[in-house]
């Protein structure tokens, strides 16, 4: 039998840039209709390691409703303007900005901090990235949150949204660098 040459692994494909035009759908960023009584805007910018906006990133959010109930309703891809499914998707614009019309989540457990789960897809990433957005007013619950309390204070602060004067939530995402957003490794998520 001839000697076999060892094979080397080839690099994985990176995410995108096709996501910017292949995944968006009508009202994908509208978990609730903009301007409705319960709506709050979640906005921000995705930055790369050099501090430049990422124009072709896509974000997905998953969250409970105001009472902390995780929706089991279908209809995320066909919005009816009434059913809250807890899922949204937004493509960044050429300046790296994103925006969602959603509700402020309630805590899923008594005494826990409410948060919105965020998934980031972007060119140059070998895998999607997972993070969270916490509400700025939940300071007491932040101290009891297992994730936030496991981070140093500067890292934890980067997971807390900023409340703007108009009531919206601002949450910028930095993929690398000095103020990198803390990202999570979930079970089954490889490097």
UniProtKB/TrEMBL annotation:
Which residue spans traverse the membrane?
A: none
List keywords of the entry alphabetically: Dioxygenase, Oxidoreductase
Describe the location of the Intradiol ring-cleavage dioxygenases domain by residue ranges. 16-177
Superkingdom of the source species? Bacteria
Keyword set includes Lyase: no
Pfam assignment, any one: Dioxygenase_C
InterPro entries to which the protein is assigned, alphabetical: Intradiol_dOase_C, Intradiol_dOase_core, Intradiol_RC_Dioxygenase, Protocat_dOase_a
Question: What's the family?
Answer: Belongs to the intradiol ring-cleavage dioxygenase family.
Record-linked PANTHER family: DIOXYGENASE, PUTATIVE (AFU_ORTHOLOGUE AFUA_2G02910)-RELATED, PROTOCATECHUATE 3,4-DIOXYGENASE ALPHA CHAIN
Q: What is this protein called?
A: Protocatechuate 3,4-dioxygenase subunit alpha
Give the organism, scientific name. Answer: Brevibacterium ammoniilyticum
């Amino acid at each position: 039998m001839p000697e076999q040459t060892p094979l080397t692994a080839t690099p994985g494909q990176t995410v995108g840039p096709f996501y910017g035009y292949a995944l968006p759908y009508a009202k994908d960023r509208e978990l609730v209709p903009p301007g409705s009584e319960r709506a709050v805007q979640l906005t921000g910018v995705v930055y790369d390691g050099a501090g430049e906006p990422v124009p072709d990133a896509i974000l997905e959010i998953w969250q409970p409703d105001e009472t902390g109930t995780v929706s089991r309703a279908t209809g995320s891809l066909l919005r009816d303007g009434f059913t809250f499914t807890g899922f949204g998707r937004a493509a960044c614009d050429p300046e790296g900005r994103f925006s969602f019309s959603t509700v402020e989540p309630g805590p899923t457990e008594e005494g826990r901090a409410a948060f919105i789960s965020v998934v980031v897809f972007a060119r140059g990433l070998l895998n999607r990235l997972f993070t969270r957005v916490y509400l700025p007013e939940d300071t007491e619950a932040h101290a009891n949150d297992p994730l936030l309390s496991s981070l140093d204070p500067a890292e934890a602060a980067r997971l807390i949204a900023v409340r703007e004067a108009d009531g919206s939530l601002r949450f910028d995402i930095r993929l690398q660098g000095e103020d990198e957003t803390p990202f999570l490794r979930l079970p089954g998520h490889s490097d």
